[in-house]
Amino acid sequence: MIGRLNHVAIAVPDLAAASKLYRDTLGAKVSAPVDQPDHGVITVFIKLPNTKIELLHPLGANSPIANFLAKNPAGGIHHVCYEVKDIYAARDKLKTDGLRVLGDGEPKIGAHGKPVLFLHPKDFNGVLVEIEQA
Length: 134
Known about the structure:
The protein has 134 residues and is an alpha+beta fold. It is 22% helix and 37% strand. It contains 3 helices and 9 strands; from the N terminus they run E-H-E-E-E-E-H-E-H-E-E-E.
């Protein structure tokens, strides 16, 4: 069921400074910031040869990233995203196996324009997992 690692998401308190660090210090290709109002975040993607890093910054006071940064003011890893071929089949198998899908259980369109779901961190050794249809 699980495919390749799509990205690792890092919540950051200063999106411009984090982008500069990856671009200027590490020499990475860094995208422009994109508002994701449906998810309450601003995203920047860092393209690596084998995967991506997603920088997350709050978009509005009710952003889930604002809550994360309140608990982790310096930022930190927020989630990992794995690709799946069929998000509905993956969701149904995970639920059958007793794992918790967050929200209403229906996929939402993510930052890459593809359906995504998030899985409860308590079911994955304390890690918030996103699955994205490849």
